[in-house]
Amino acid sequence: MMDSHKQLFSLSCLPLLLLLLSGNMGMQLSEARLQRHEMNYYSPKTLFVFGDSYVDTGNYRINQAGSSWKNPYGETFPGKPAGRFSDGRVLTDYIAKYLGLKSPVPYKFRKVMQQHLKYGMNFAFGGTGVFDTSSKNPNMTIQIDFFKQLIKENVYTTSDLNNSVVYVSVAGNDYNFYLATNGSIEGFPAFIASVVNQTATNLLRIKSLGVRKIVVGGLQPLGCLPSSTATSSFQQCNSTSNDLVVLHNNLLNQAVTKLNQQTNKDNSTFIVLDLFDTFTSVLNHPSTNNIKDPLKPCCVGLSSQDFCGKVDENNVKQYKVCDSPKSAFFWDNLHPTQAGWEAVYKKLQKTSALHQIRY
């Protein structure tokens, strides 16, 4: 698909190339195009993040049930647990890098890391959704309330907001909670629609605060997470789960298209990052990214009751870690390794969606 696009592009550009080679007129056209390109280039100065454990970089409480502040989390980066649900960097670390920014400071540390506030802020809390879940952490509505309050306090100015990008992660906690509380399969499509509608409401609310570009992650293939593939000894994705994900993503794309039509003539205010196709592409071609274990998690509990990071009352590990996290896509039952996120990021770099953040 990519190769055919390149071929079409080169053929369609042939007349223009001939013209550019024909002398002064070519030079003038080239200069005009360069000026137009520079005018369209957008260099965000701040990144704001909302969502869940896929993008949480430290808001999750240290004493809370869960493992992002316990060994072996963070062993690849920064070398110790730092609140990321991975052995290292997560997606928004790479998005910040793409924008030439430092990763935004977690909301929890805003008062002790004030020198970093200029790069933006991360409001994401592991375990949360657009609605309430089993997590006691702030859902996305409350996260946006935090953001609104900081704007009210003039921590971020109109200029900061106008030169910013927002990333919103909706990685499936609402659906996990729906199933855990005996939600019916028959009612699942209607619930998916309500999650997407609430997501769209959140995106619109963020825009109303003065943000220029808002990026939302499409849902990754939940049926390929180790929590789903454990029953097949990490050999096969659950197609039923992935069919529901496709419905979510179709509705999300429709909602974002509608938002763009309603709010912005150039269709670039709201952008969807296709995590389904990028995850699937990496998992289907693992060796391209030097990944040997596409579906098997690197860090696993010793029994079905145990999990990555768990210790018993004598502080004895109830988990084991693979020899090489960089050769595994998944870190634990739900989250990618740093290597997994880097592979996804490299795939995203080849898509138009990531480029739209800058133009």
- The domain count comes to 1
The helical percent reads 40-55%
Count of helix runs: 13
- Please give the CATH architecture: 3-Layer(aba) Sandwich
CATH H-level name... which superfamily?
Answer: SGNH hydrolase
Order of helix and strand elements from N to C terminus = HHHEHEEHHEHHEHHEHEEHH
Total number of beta strands: 8
Q: Cα-atom Rg, whole angstroms?
A: 22 Å
Can you tell me the CATH class? Alpha Beta
Q: How far from one another are the termini?
A: 23 Å
Write down the overall geometry.
globular
Description:
The protein has 359 residues and is of the alpha/beta class. The protein has a single domain (44-291, 338-356), classed as SGNH hydrolase (Rossmann fold), CATH 3.40.50. The protein has helices at 2-12, 14-20, 24-40, 91-98, 140-152, 158-162, 173-180, 188-208, 226-229, 239-263, 275-284, 338-348, 352-356, and strands at 46-50, 105-106, 120-122, 164-168, 213-217, 270-273, 299-301, 319-321. The strands form two sheets. The chain has a six-stranded parallel sheet with strand order 2-3-1-4-5-6. A two-stranded antiparallel sheet has the order 7-8. The protein is globular, with a radius of gyration of 22 Å. The two termini are 23 Å apart. Mean pLDDT is 89; it is low at 1-39.
Give descriptors for this structure.
8 strands; 359 residues; 40% helix; Rossmann fold; alpha/beta; 13 helices; SGNH_hydro_sf; single chain
Question: In a nutshell, what does this entry contain?
Answer:
With 359 residues, the chain is an alpha/beta fold.
